[in-house]
Write a structure and sequence with these properties.
There is one protein chain. The chain is built from 2 helices and 10 strands; from the N terminus they run H-E-E-E-H-E-E-E-E-E-E-E. By secondary structure, the protein is mainly beta. It has one domain (41-173): RNA polymerase II/Efflux pump adaptor protein, barrel-sandwich hybrid domain (OB fold (Dihydrolipoamide Acetyltransferase, E2P), Beta Barrel). The strands form 2 sheets. It has a 5-stranded antiparallel beta sheet. It has a 5-stranded antiparallel beta sheet with strand order 5-9-6-7-8, with no helix packed on it. It starts with 15 loop residues before the first helix and ends with a strand.
Length: 175
Amino acid sequence: MPTLKKPSTQERPPKPEAIAGTVCRAEPPRQRRLLFSHRNQWKVVVESIHRGFLDAAVTIRLPSGVRMVAQVPLSTASMLGISIGRHFTALVDPHAILLEAGTTRPLVSCVNCLEGEVSDATEAMDTVELELTVGKVDRFHMNIPVFGGCRESFVRGNRVWILFPSRCVVLARAF
């Protein structure tokens, strides 16, 4: 006489006829909070949008009133719901920042050319960590390698020009 096997304690997959009648329900989206370990970030307001063929040039205002431009693909702009007056978090990649020491504005093709001041300079082994103030409120942070002669240009209180491409400004939705 054949022996009967005990049913397994593991769950068996449902039979195809049982799946056919079930209704799938999507879960409602959960509220997510983006966390950044990025130092060059601010709460900004969108001031204007200039739409191009593939990208939008979005002019944003920092808390100090200083303006910068973020270049955003049109698909991303519509996904984020970018509109005038909307609040976002803006981040600038510190590796894309160029500095020009001096009082006269440099002649460059870069859209974002902000006048600032060195508020702190900390020397490490082979770099100088700079804190740059723009508009008396907003701060940029960056590291520059130490070369002969460049150290004197970036001491506390010196005026500098902060240059970075508009593609290096990232906008994230502020919830």
